[in-house]
Amino acid sequence: MAAALAVSGLRVGPAGGAPEWAGRPVSTGTTIIAVEFDGGVVIGADSRTTTGSYVANRVTDKLTPIHERIFCCRSGSAADTQAIADAVAYQLGFHSIELDEPPLVHTAASLFKEMCYRYREDLMAGIIVAGWDRRKGGQVFAVPMGGMMVRQPFSVGGSGSSYIYGFVDASYKPGMSREECLSFTANALALAMDRDGSSGGVIRLAAISEQGVERQVVLGNQLPRFSAP
């Protein structure tokens, strides 16, 4: 059986049973991005989840709601980021009940920072926290691996981000409108998905403002194109 699998090009594990990729961690090797605009934020991500080079899920939702108008974008280990997001959403819910008002985006980002820093030796998680609150409007906070936290006008993360730093630096303009931010985010994600083998699938977008959350999906045959097929 192992010989047959080897001939077919599928590498098997030491026990000769499951293929090699089956023993690798599930990863959201990914591209995530968030941008502030006047009155809110736009967030976006691809939808590919991988175990090694095997695509485990083509339509993952990496835009995770933490509260009514606060979301996080997840990159790194799928298990780690899901566990952190669940824990922060739980704590933030209680915090909101105690205050009897919606929580601040900064509070949510601080909870992510504390957890990522406390367990920095065990977690593989890069998070972007974005949302709207009545005190400071739309905000984007980057919480990279290691537990640092910094507010930025826009932030990119994940394995595909290294392919698009030049594009986002050249294309970002302060004061962009909601529609310009949606276009900027979709174009950046499409470029990363074209180059990064761990990014792909569809583009998920969300615009968060005082009015609520409006989500969009850009299907594979509708992705922006920048080169001939």
Describe the structure.
With 229 residues, the chain is α+β, with helices and mostly antiparallel strands. It is built from five helices and 13 strands. The N terminus is likely disordered.
CA-CA gap between termini? 39 Å
Unreliable parts = 1-12
Radius of gyration: 19 Å
Quaternary status: single chain
Q: What's the β-strand tally?
A: 13
Report the total helices: 5
Find the structural class using helix and strand composition: alpha+beta
**What's the average pLDDT?**
88
Shape: globular
Largest sheet strand order: 11-2-3-12-13
Instruction: Please describe the biggest sheet, giving its number of strands, its sense, and whether it closes into a barrel.
Output: 5 strands, antiparallel
**Secondary-structure element string:** HEEEEEEEHHEEEEHHEE
Helix coverage percent of residues? 25-40%
Our estimate of the beta-strand percent is 25-35%
Structure in a nutshell:
This protein is an alpha+beta fold. Helices cover 29% and strands 30% of the residues.
Which descriptors would you attach to this protein?
single chain, 229 residues, alpha+beta, five-stranded antiparallel β-sheet, 5 helices, 29% helix, disordered N terminus
Task: Break the fold down into its secondary structure elements and pairings.
Elements: H1 2-7, E1 26-27, E2 32-37, E3 40-45, E4 49-51, E5 54-57, E6 63-67, E7 70-76, H2 78-99, H3 105-118, E8 125-133, E9 137-143, E10 150-151, E11 154-157, H4 165-171, H5 178-195, E12 203-209, E13 212-218
Antiparallel strand pairs: 1-4, 2-3, 2-11, 3-12, 4-5, 6-7, 7-8, 8-9, 9-10, 12-13
Helix pairs in contact: 2-3
